[in-house]
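Table S2 (continued). Query chain:
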Amino acid sequence: MIFSKSINKYYLKFLPYFLMGIISLLVVDLAQLEVPEIIGNLVDDLEAYRAGEYSEGQILGIINDLLLTLSLIAALIVGGRFLWRLGIMGGSRRLVYELRNDMFDHALKLSPRFYSERKVGGLMAYFINDIQAVRRATGPGMIMLVDMIFLGGLVFMRMFMIDARMTLVLAVPLFILAVLGITLGNIMRQRFRRAQEAFEYLSDDVQESLSGIDVIKSFVKEDKEIRHFLKANKNARDKNILFARMQMLFRALTRIIVSLSFVLMIFYGMQLVELTQDTADPFTIGDLVAFLSYFSMLIWPMMAISMIINVRSRGKASLKRIESILDEPIDIVDDENVVDIEEIRGDIEFNNLTFSYPDAEEGDEPALKNITFDVSAGEMVGILGRTGSGKTSIVDLLLRLYNLEENSLLIDGVDIMKIPFKKIREDIGYVPQDGFLFSDTIKNNIALGVDDDRADMDKIQEVAELSDVHDNIVQFKHGYETVIGERGVTLSGGQKQRVSIARALAKNPPILIMDDSVSAVDTSTEEKILRNLRKLRKGKTTIMIAHRISTVKNADKIVVIDNGEILDVGTHEELEARCEFYRDLVERQQLEDEVEGQ
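Corresponding output:
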């Protein structure tokens, strides 16, 4: 059983389950305590019958009474065990269910900075292995702790009442076992933490390799990846073996101590039976049988010591790792003085904005420097620049993925930091460059951003036609019900981009941002999509990030950006006339088109 600020609240939430389980477990333990005494009395009664003190009818009556008592105790134990399993094990399952939900909820709120520092494959270990270690510590760990304290204590008292001398002799190996457990427990906790870290690294390595399997195959690097995997797998195996060795050593030492104690009890008990048989307070064979029965019951609490140390060590190590996620600060939160906006119109104003990413080192150039331009509601605006010029950084800020200085970015005349970030993301449609899709049907991917009551098939088909992907979809065997695999692996790059565009159009937001999202389609398809966008998006703000002139040349205005700075803002004709950088891009791309056309 483990306690911490991050887990105590779950104990309180499911306290009725745990209390029911603990009370039932205590009832079972109390019932079990009567069995050795009954058996001991039976042995003494049989000895008395053999000595002629009881008649055959009397001994049969005694046996029948004892069997009836044992049957009632057995029924009580069976019912109690069902209840304590339902309470404690069920409570621990509910606890980790809530904990995993809270972990995932917290993970969704963390900023991109966190995910730039932590790998997704490694994080999966927290949600699987670590959460299971916590469950074992809060479920089986609680059972073992209660049994160790309550059952072990009561059994020890009963044994002391039978014979204090034998009990004191037994206390010596128990003390040795306790010292051994404390010493080896610290070592096991450290080794388990290293084993979990090795598993995290292995999990991340597998996830990354399988995600990039096409790249690995295309570069014929299977052997290299296999060697890398074998190294990570061997490291995980070695760390787990080190932990398992210490675990097995502790279990072996515990069993040796228990076995030697049992032999010691039998040897010493037989001596006491012989030495006290003619005294006023003899230690009878029945007492010895009852004492050994109690000692057999004490073996479980004694073994539980090692198991508690084991599961608690693992649980504490895993909980500490889980808390590293739960304690991660949420960077993106609403301002205390948020403005309640019912509907965003689409006016955008960048006001001398300078921005550096949180992980930027001191002395690094800002990602964006003195960005100033505005977008009127209903305009189609292109943002053009070379790779790494800062185009996507502008998108990140519009989506409120990072915090900004006051009044450096306004939407509808309101500082973006004063608008609830949920409202911003609800009213902005976003088409990422990589066209990320989920392992689901095409229909569900397109309907992702809309309410269930608006996700009708006619609407989905309409936006698919507008993004020029409908014809491709109906050619699949299952049409819109086709499951496209992880990250849309069964679709081509162009198809993924067009499905992503359809997903954003289905949302029909006041502001639509397309981040170089037609780069994987041919020019004729691009022209068709843009033509449809101009008709559909009339009166709504559309921002198109691009590196191709053809994507933005018909926009109401084009923002030319390079090295994080705005070079010029204007129409295609205006920029051709006065912006040398833009003119150079036009000439270069015209030359590329001519070469490709030959």
